[in-house]
Structures are given as C-alpha cells and as structure tokens.
Amino acid sequence: MVKLYAGHQFIGWIGPPWLVERLAEFDLGLYASFIAVCQITIGFMLLTTRYKLLGGIMMIPMILNILMVTISQHWRGTPYVLAAFLAMDLYLLWQYRDFFWPLLEEGENGGKLRHRKPKSLQGHLTWLAGLGLQLLSVPASFLNLPLAFSLAGAGVIIGVLSFRIDLILRGKTARQSLN
C-alpha cells in the first residue's frame, strides 16, 4: 500500500516506498505498480485468511519476482527477508499438502482430502467488497488521506467478517433443516 499511496503515506514496514518511482527510471513503473497491486491482493488473502491457500500459492511467484528485482538492483538484506517470507509461505502450504496431491496425480486423491467448512456466496461477495475497499483506498489517498485510511481499515474488517456471514448462513441452514 505504501508504494501506491499518495506521498507514500501508509504504514510501511517492508520494502522501499519509492520502488515504483525507482523502477520507472528503467521503464518498469507499470510492472512495479502491478507487483504492488498483487502484493495488496495476496496480502489481503493471507491477512483475512479466507483464501489463504490461494494466496499462499500466488505468493511464491510474487516472492520470486521481487527477488529477481532485488538481485538485479543489488539490494542487500532484502533477499534474506524474502527467504524468511518464502519459508513462512512454504510452512503455510505444507498445512494444505493434501490439496496438492490431486494436482500432481491429475485428479486422484485417494480419499485423502480433509473436509473444510463450506463458504457461502454471500461470504465470498462480502470478502470481495472488502478487497474492493482496500484497492479503492489507493486512489482515495490522493484526494483525502483520512478517508483512504478509513476505507483500508473498513476493507480489512469487512474481509474478516466474511467468515461471520458464512457462520450466520450455516446456522440459518441448520435451523431450517431441523424445522
């Protein structure tokens, strides 16, 4: 978010906020913006945990792309941080290892797939609205910074609440089946 916010006025704890401008010198500004939007989307998937498996899978090529940029720019230290992120991501993916066997065996899973709680369409749409607010906060930062921060915060809260929507709908379905 810090890379795309007006004046880089967002909480930045990793990476240089001036990355987009620096890479624009090499005609890679659009690429840097694309990576930043991917970071926001993947980070939102992991932070809200609704799509942590998909986010974890998407994080591997993202980390490798960032690693290539940092190596080509001769940045020191960043590859170590990326290695730590990659290790954390691999740990997350290891927890979902049963989902990868059907991919490797082209559909056969031998009944090894663990059951996960179903997610509702309303929960998916709620999560998507949260992501939309997150992304909308970037252009809003150029107009009104407090509004942009409010949109980003509301987006995270709404994204996390998508699980609550699923829980409420599962409860209604269970009550209806009892009646």
Automatic annotation (TrEMBL):
It comes from Algoriphagus jejuensis. The chain crosses the membrane at residues 28-46, 53-71, 148-169. This is DoxX-like protein. The keyword Membrane applies. The lineage of its organism: Bacteria, Pseudomonadati, Bacteroidota, Cytophagia, Cytophagales. Keywords: Membrane, Transmembrane, Transmembrane helix.
